[in-house]
């Protein structure tokens, strides 16, 4: 199975976490951490505990040690609610009020699919203690003490900003970041803040790489990922 192959499986949301992240329990007893991503994430606020969801993952996610899985679909129809303008994930650490949701029942044949997916994700699920927090469209203030880990910077770089740690994810490949003599974050010409939602860019010698989102990391996770990329 290639890294582009994916498996869809379904389960029940057992806990709603901040920043469009959810704990999902499969019928075979395994649990994973999943989060909304892409266009759907921009409007999505919260899934009610107990609702059925469909999650998509790939074996490549597991081999790379990723613990957050993309939740691309829901098993039914649901309603979006507008996000409050004053809500900032990094500052509040909690999601805004939940939207109304109407979910359909599981399709036939789920049991076999869940068993296959559960066997694949079990090792990674045990490591998924704390999901990364995603800033979405919010901004973080940049300090002078910055460290950018750019080894293997195809789709993201690691950022230490003072005593805070982040994974900065691009909308497209940013290979120029690996060899560039100059790296600087800019938001509408200003260099004192960094925002998700395609508002900021990473300036290199030859290009400007648009930033899709920013994920908050624990210090230990940052150090581990930095060591892996430096090998």
From TrEMBL:
This is Translation initiation factor IF-1, chloroplastic. Belongs to the IF-1 family. One of its GO terms (molecular function) is ribosome binding. PROSITE patterns: S1_IF1_TYPE (PS50832). InterPro entries: NA-bd_OB-fold, RNA-binding_domain_S1_IF1, S1_domain, TIF_IF1. It holds the Pfam family eIF-1a. Gene3D superfamilies: Nucleic acid-binding proteins. Component of the 30S ribosomal translation pre-initiation complex which assembles on the 30S ribosome in the order IF-2 and IF-3, IF-1 and N-formylmethionyl-tRNA(fMet); mRNA recruitment can occur at any time during PIC assembly. Residues 1-72 form the S1-like domain. SMART domains: S1 (SM00316). It comes from the Eukaryota. GO terms for cellular component: cytosol. Keywords: Initiation factor, Protein biosynthesis. One of the essential components for the initiation of protein synthesis. Stabilizes the binding of IF-2 and IF-3 on the 30S subunit to which N-formylmethionyl-tRNA(fMet) subsequently binds. Helps modulate mRNA selection, yielding the 30S pre-initiation complex (PIC). Upon addition of the 50S ribosomal subunit IF-1, IF-2 and IF-3 are released leaving the mature 70S translation initiation complex.
């Amino acid at each position: 199975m290639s890294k582009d192959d994916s498996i869809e499986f379904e389960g029940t949301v057992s806990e709603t976490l901040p920043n469009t992240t959810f704990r999902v329990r499969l019928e075979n007893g395994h649990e994973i951490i999943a989060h909304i991503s892409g266009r759907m994430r921009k409007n999505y606020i919260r899934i009610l505990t107990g609702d059925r969801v469909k999650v998509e993952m790939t074996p490549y996610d597991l081999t790379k040690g990723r613990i957050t899985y993309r939740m691309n679909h829901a098993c039914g129809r649901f309603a979006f609610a507008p996000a409050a303008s004053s809500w900032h994930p990094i500052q509040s650490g909690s999601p805004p009020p939940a939207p109304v949701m109407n979910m359909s029942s599981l399709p036939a044949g789920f049991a076999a699919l869940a068993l296959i997916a559960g066997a694949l994700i079990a090792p990674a699920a045990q490591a998924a203690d704390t999901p990364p927090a995603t800033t979405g469209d919010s901004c973080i203030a940049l300090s002078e003490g910055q460290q950018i880990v750019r080894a293997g910077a195809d789709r993201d770089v690691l950022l230490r900003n003072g005593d805070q740690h982040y994974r900065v994810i691009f909308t497209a490949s940013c290979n120029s970041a690996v060899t560039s003599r100059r790296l600087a974050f800019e938001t509408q010409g200003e260099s004192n803040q960094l925002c998700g939602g395609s508002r900021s860019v990473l300036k290199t010698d030859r290009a400007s790489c648009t930033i899709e989102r920013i994920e908050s990391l624990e210090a230990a996770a940052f150090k581990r990922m930095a060591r892996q990329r430096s090998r």
